[in-house]
Design goal:
single chain; about 550 residues; eight-stranded mixed beta sheet; about 20% strand
Length: about 550
């Protein structure tokens, strides 16, 4: 047997609570090695880089699956291993690179030379069965990518934005000039974003251009609240404007006021309410995960990869610290984002709300990058606050410890590091993928939940706002018969950079430091900056 994955220490906040009951059945998944990840990455960059001859020529479902499908040799080797051990597996991804199987703890320990144990998360009391290491037969090296969930621990801090009640509810301000209403310095509404970023109010035209919002951890998007929101903040569009629903893993979207979710409502209100008349899809991922500890992250991507025409933009306001996930699993998920990107989907995630301390301000001596923001094949969105805009101090940003810095951002990041000098030296990986890529308002954002008005803060506000801008650009491109923007970063760091408002003040403290400073050009607080719609239209060739 060859050692395959190992977690050096029990992750922060968990304690070992003894051996797992031998007869407990584990639902495991196995990822096979994909046949050509380098080819996929090259194809992604070719169709996503404005200077490339292939720019905008996105791949079909079948073309992407060719890069990802495991080799016949790998499939045969895994099938033989399973048959030898009387294990029945079923395929759970469109390209056949993920299998699922269920076996009891005693058999899993034997099969994987593992020690599955019970681990308790002290703060929440939640228990999980995991192993700190596992092995595979030596002849399966090069065929098995990983087995999950084994060494990746659950994320008990799937934290949601806190909601505070606003000052007296104000009616939307009718804008007659380019001036940003004074009220926007204390309360952000769609009218503020339209004024600040030049976002148009004209309805989108192309019905095939879709914007998807992902919903996890039993967060439900409420139709009545959306209606109240639109009546108050977008009186110029029909109050009945709504979203369609897709569900997986037993997902649902019940409509009682008490079940309205702060996060889900925020995401839907700031996509439907900003991307005027763009068809909006709420994807509710239930609690019956096929992917173990990842709270449905992988399932939603496999779900969308299985569609012949997935939505052109996907925004997600959830994430976790990179150190809670195994490197192999992080890589596999990151490649899944590359697959969707190659098909022309823009994937945006909130960068996190703990400054340089990642997704929560825990005790840390080195900075904690977040996942999936460290993945180079998605767009990470940080947060700003105030008018004029400055960095939101909670905006997570930094450098991945798993993923190397992609070439598209090398010049922008080296400029920042040269200016930074030796500040915080040794606390972060200077050669890692740097994030966030861009930013948008993320503080004092007004929403409606359970019929009540309230203010929320977090990069979870910023991601749907930036995603709405991308969707509106895609609508205009589609109307001219052009391709959607797809994977955004090579564009953003080249022709797109000058179309963003550079944020040069503020910082993102954490881990008992001042964090990183915002400065001219790219920085790990607000990325390249916030959207300027008119300039972005020109930059994308409209």
């Amino acid at each position: 047997m060859a050692l395959h994955e190992v977690m050096e220490d029990i992750p922060d906040g968990f304690v070992h609570s003894g051996s797992a009951p031998q007869d407990t059945v584990l639902n495991l998944r196995l990822a096979l090695v994909q046949s050509d990840t380098a080819g996929l990455e090259k194809a992604l960059m070719d169709v996503s880089t404005p200077s490339s001859a292939l720019y905008g020529q996105h791949l079909s479902k079948e073309e992407v699956e060719k890069f990802v499908a495991p080799s016949p040799e790998s499939v045969a080797a895994i099938n033989a291993w399973f048959a030898e051990n009387d294990i029945e597996a079923k395929t759970i991804s469109p390209a056949g690179d993920w299998l699922s199987f269920s076996i009891p703890v005693n058999k899993a320990n034997e099969l994987l030379d593992a020690d599955f144990s019970v681990f308790t998360h002290e703060e929440t009391g939640k228990t999980s069965i995991r192993t700190l290491a596992y092995s595979i037969p030596a002849d399966l090296k090069g065929h098995v990518d990983l087995v999950h969930p084994t060494v990746t621990f659950p994320n008990p801090f799937a934290r949601l934005p806190a909601m505070v009640t606003p000052p007296k509810a104000k009616k939307a301000v009718n804008l007659t000039s380019d001036a940003v209403p004074a009220s926007c310095s204390s309360t952000i509404t769609p009218a503020c974003l339209q004024a600040l970023y030049g976002i148009p109010t004209t309805p989108a035209q192309v019905s095939s251009n879709k914007l998807a919002v992902s919903g996890f951890i039993e967060q439900f998007a409420n139709q009545a609240d959306l209606r109240t929101f639109l009546i108050n903040f977008r009186p110029d569009i029909p109050a009945a404007t709504t979203f369609t629903l897709q569900t997986l893993d037993g997902g649902r979207n019940p409509q009682s006021a008490s079940q309205a979710g702060v996060e889900a409502n925020l995401d839907i209100q700031y996509t439907v309410g900003v991307a005027t008349e763009v068809p909006n899809v709420f994807i509710s991922v239930g609690e019956q995960f096929q992917d173990g500890a990842l709270e449905g992250f992988l399932d939603i991507i496999n779900f969308l990869l299985g569609e012949s025409s997935p939505p052109q933009v996907l925004t997600t306001s959830y994430g976790q610290n990179e150190n809670t996930i195994s490197r192999a699993l992080a890589n596999n998920l990151c490649n899944a984002y590359a697959q969707l990107g190659a098909r022309g989907v823009s994937i945006l995630f909130a960068s996190g709300d703990g400054g340089v301390a990642g997704s929560q301000s825990s005790r840390c001596t080195t900075f904690l990058p977040t996942f999936p923001s460290g993945c180079p094949f998605m767009t990470s969105v940080g947060a700003t606050t105030g008018i004029p805009e400055t960095s939101a101090s909670f905006s997570s940003g930094g450098f991945s410890n798993f993923f190397a810095q992609p070439s598209y951002q090398a010049s922008a990041v080296s400029t920042f590091l040269n200016a930074l000098g030796n500040t915080n030296s040794g606390k972060f990986n200077r050669t890692g993928r740097a994030f966030p890529d861009v930013a948008a308002q993320g503080d004092n954002v007004e929403i409606v939940v359970g019929g009540e008005f309230g203010l929320v803060a977090g990069t979870s506000c910023s991601s749907p706002i930036f995603a709405s801008v991308v969707s509106l650009l895609n609508d205009e491109l589609a109307a001219q018969g052009k391709s959607p923007l797809g994977f955004l970063n090579p564009f953003l760091y080249s022709t797109g950079a000058a179309a963003l408002n550079d944020i040069t003040t503020g910082s993102n403290p954490g881990c008992n430091t001042n964090g990183f400073p915002a400065r001219a050009g790219w920085d790990p607080v607000t990325g390249l900056g916030t959207p300027d719609f008119a300039k972005l239209r020109t930059a994308v060739g409209l």
